[in-house]
Amino acid sequence: MKFEILSVIGLGYIGLPTAATFASRGMMVIGVDVNQKAVDTINSGGIHIIEPDLDIVVRSVVQSGNLRATTIPEPADAFIVAVPTPFKDDKQPDLRYIEAASKAIAPLLQKGNLVILESTSPVGATEQMAAWLAEARPDLTFPQQVGEEADICVAHCPERVLPGKVLVELVNNARVIGGLTPKCSQAAVSLYKLFVQGECVVTNARTAEMCKLTENSFRDVNIAFANELSIICDKLDINVWELIKLANRHPRVNILQPGPGVGGHCIAVDPWFIVASAPDEARLISTARQVNDHKPEWVIDQVKKAIADFLLANQNRTARDVTIACLGLAFKPDIDDLRESPSLDIAAKLAEMSFGSMLVVEPNVELLPDSLKQKNIVLSDTQSALQKADILLLLVDHSQFKDWEYQARDNQILIDTRGVWTR
Ligand code: SAJ
Questions:
Q1: Among this protein's residues, is 212 annotated catalytic?
Q2: Do domains 5-206 and 238-266+296-416 have the same CATH topology?
Q3: Ligand 1: distance of its center to the CA of 311 in Å?
Q4: What angle do CA 376, 378, 380 make, to 5 degrees?
Q5: For 291-337, how does the pLDDT look when each residue is reduced to its tens digit (9 = 90+)?
Q6: pTM of the full predicted structure?
Q7: Ligand 1 shell residues, CB under 6 Å
């Protein structure tokens, strides 16, 4: 199959780097997004998301004319759908963006086109996308109707890149490619092989969908194990970081690290897609989600206990003049991404309680996020937070915090949710 023009629908954290990488290999790429501001930014050679080195690649491919963004889809040889797949209030997958993308590209489809779903999706979503396309285009044939003879190929190829390392992992990671038929898989392999150096492993669409969900659920379950251990160890007065380090010396044990909760847009979401498909069977996966979602509340309870201890030891002080400093807001170390961050959530909830003043240190941002702006919170530098705080709450293991050993001074209480200073 020959691909000259590629259309990427959805220019977010996955779509934009994917579009830019294909464009950097000489393809003509049309990026489509409903967000006019994002489209304008990209067409001016800029980026609207944060990802190392992406700005350089986008600028270069926009200047060379290989990448162009638009809000209106155009005909292409292949379409990659990379739109969000959130869940609804009841934790059921919300496929409305895939449906909208399918309906937007359906009128443009031509015999010989390939349509790939990249969005992390519940099992059956690729078949559903193909059904939406077929419904809109009765004049064309699709794999679910005529198998290998279909006019249009449809496949799922989930993204598996780590935020912060997207451009490197896009090229180097193995790809799981699940076509609705073997011919669809092969067409998708020939497209990705234009830049993927990792192996392109072929399976069917349902297995590819489940594979992506499984990877993130595996990580979620393992983090839940570490988080549960941290709560048990707190009760038993054991240093969980030392414990994990010791247990991990066993050749077949590799426990992950506890933290204040699981954030980001993937690991805290994707396991629910498995639970939604098999609610009675996915007991461990569902419990792991609950354990990780509960961790921020447990951290807040630790702070409340610390305030009570502090006031007991300092009878001349009241809750209204206790200073709390939160160190780190991002959802994981050394990034400036605050979305779906348990640390941000904890800081916001603590600020709502009527304690004294609150300092926040986030070395990777220059301004407080909107959710903290209205409240009595000051964005501070690390040194003044360490000096002023009565209670220090370490929430993110940023390199800056790890670089020094900190001993809480007399009268200061340290709560270290990442084991940076208490390992
Ligand atoms: N976390 C811990 N303890 C750990 C590891 C992580 O508490 O030992 C927390 C982090 O602090 C963060 C959350 O988990 O809040 C998620 O961080 P992460 O680094 O584990 O994962 P993401 O969300 O940045 O990216 C994941 C990756 N999936 C896997 O590693 C299996 C990535 O490869 C996927 O492409 C991405 O999800 C995605 O888009 O699905």
A1: yes
A2: yes
A3: 37
A4: 160
A5: 999 999 999 999 999 999 999 999 999 988 899 999 999 999 988 88
A6: 0.94
A7: 120, 159-163, 215-216, 219, 223, 256-257, 259, 262-264, 266-267, 331-332
> 238-266+296-416: what fold?
Rossmann fold (3.40.50)
Check if the beta carbon of residue 406 is closer than 8 Å to that of residue 388.
no
What's the CATH number for 5-206? 3.40.50.720
**Distance from Cα 387 to the centre of ligand 1, integer Å:** 32
146 contact partners, CB below 8 Å, separation of at least 6: none
**E strand segments, 186-267:** 200-204
Q: Tokens for 158, please give them.
A: 């989930």
Torsion of CA 304, 308, 313, 314, to 10 degrees: 90
> Which residues, including other chains, have CB under 8 Å from residue 309's CB and lie 6 or more apart?
413
Q: Where are the alpha helices (DSSP H) in 80-151?
A: 96-105, 125-136, 143-146
Domain boundaries, the chain: 5-206, 238-266+296-416
Rg (alpha carbons) of the chain, rounded to whole number: 24
Q: What CA–CA distance (Å, rounded) separates 395 from 327? A: 6
**Protein residue with least CA distance to atom 35, ligand 1:** 160
| Pairwise CA distance, residues 259 & 363, whole Å | 19
Pocket test residue of 173, 266, 418 for ligand 1, highest count of atoms within 8 A of CB = 266
Q: How many CA atoms lie within 13 A of 351 on its CB side?
A: 20
**How many residues are present in the chain?**
423
Measure the CA–CA gap between 60 and 45, rounded to whole angstroms. Answer: 8
Nearest ligand 1 atom to alpha carbon 260 = 7
Contact 86, 12 (CB under 8 A): no
The pLDDT tens digits of the residues spanning 112-171 come to: 999 999 999 999 999 999 999 999 999 999 999 999 999 999 999 999 999 889 999 999
Ligand 1: atom nearest CA of 120 is: 40
